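STRUCTURE REQUEST FORM
Protein name: Oxysterol-binding protein
Source organism: Malassezia pachydermatis
Requested output: structure tokens
Priority: standard
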Amino acid sequence: MGLLGQVSSAVNKVPHGFKHSKEDAPPEGAHADDMEELDEESGNILMSLISQLRIGMDLSKVTLPTFVLEPRSMLERVTDFLSHPDLIFGADKLDNPEERFIAIMTYYMSGWHIKPKGVKKPYNPILGEFFRCSYTYPDGTVGVYIAEQVSHHPPISAYYYVSPQNNVLIYGDLRPKSKFLGNSAATLMGGTSHIVMLNRPEDGEYLISMPNMYARGILFGKMVLELGDHSEVTNVANDISSTVEFKVKGYFTGTYNAIGAKVVHRGQTVGELSGKWNESVEYKDSKTGSTRVLFNSKTLQAVRKDTVPLNEQEPNESQRLWAKVTEGIKEKNMEKATQYKTEIEEAQREAARQRQTTGQAWQPRFFIVHGDRFIPNMSALPEMYCPPAAQQYFANELTKAT
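Status: completed
Returned output:
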């Protein structure tokens, strides 16, 4: 029996009685940027790893080979959603709450098309790792971002962005859980993103949850990345919400990357979104029947993020921390990448052992735990992250009961 047969046999001996689902079929019709085909050596390594897995196993406890890694940290990958914040800029001046909500929806949907080719997983951040960057927009206004790994077991990445001149504040966290499903690996994306228009306090927060991610075809066929299931966008103050369906392709029908959503205001459907998150998304007004394009990813211009030079970063800043691993991946030197990745992981384990020995509890540096949220610690952040409006906002949040 060949290696693929051995792996398939091992998987199918799981007590759960796994059967290949339609979603686990070899992908057909996916965009080239979404697919990946491994060479023989990489395929053999991945198959050897998969043969040790069982249905439902938590993949956070599995050390993945470096060739499946995207050469950047999850803390940096969150910035993909900050590539087009200009889609929110000015929304606070719109008098219609439905139009302000659609601006938030447009921004949210526009971040998914920025991703690596194929099926890649960013580095799992180590506890206390952080990433920071800044943005300068065409009109001269600025934005700043910082993220920190605030928990390792379970993994939680907290992030904070503010553009003072544009009155936009975004904070939240990601709480991913990975599961092995047979011919798929799923990343269940927990966590919530909070968006605030600082000069629209009556709106409160716009809350966004994330869809789940699926790497299909890891046992047979070409691997393809899909977004699936649902996410929720909610603004309680104005009683507006939307459930976004990220549609997975069926065995014979459907297409990749399609979405569908209804916008509901005070119990009534006021509009619908449709399209593909990697191409364009349209909005149809239920009252007038008119349709307009919310964004086209082919024409969107992402704003460059600026980071501190590598030699000026702290040892636990993402780009400096993972620099040697990144070098190895870009050089296609997997031995080098694996060596430095192992060193980082061993140092993390040793630090955990020392804390356990001394009884010292670890505390985040840039965030404060408040109930089930991580709120930016204004007293620990540089001045550029702490405009008066943001300081006042979080001061008010901290006075609220958890």
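Reviewer notes: The domain at 66-315+364-400 is CATH 2.40.160.120 (Porin). Residues 1-27, 38-42 have pLDDT under 50 and may be disordered.
Form closed.
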